[in-house]
Amino acid sequence: MATTTFKSLTDTTFDSVEGYRQAAEKADSPQLKQALAARGQQREQTLQQMNAELERQGDELVTKGTLSGEVHQMWQSITSMFGNSDDNVAERVEEGEDYLKGKFEKALESDQLEASERAIVQQCYDDICRGEQFGDMIEKQYD
């Protein structure tokens, strides 16, 4: 069975995939829609890596968003505040990416991951960092 920390990171990663999907729907600019969709596909690959580790451990795959708690509330607030402006979309994506990066960093700094989980989280962290850089870039571009 996966550790609580790894499962929580996987849940948050799923929520970010959904956040990107909703952000792409809310964006006005065709370029921003395309960039968000592409970034969401990258995040989907990260989720697949994490789900593969859950499956290896005999755990349930994460196939739907969290129903309660801080992660769900964060993404709900992000997606509900989009409005119709690209600058709002970009700002909320940037906030979500900062949150996710911080959560991954905290997990990597802790001793709460098994060795196999830590290896996957470290691999996925590269994508999370690219997502955070993407969030910063679009926030500056659409601000």
TrEMBL record:
Signal sequence bounds: none
Entries under Gene3D superfamilies matching the protein: 1.20.1260.10
Chain intervals for the UniProt region annotation (Disordered): 25-45
Entry-linked InterPro entries: CHP02284, DUF2383, Ferritin-like
Segments forming domain DUF2383: 2-109
Domain of life: Bacteria
Protein name: PA2169 family four-helix-bundle protein
Organism whose genome encodes this protein: Qipengyuania oceanensis
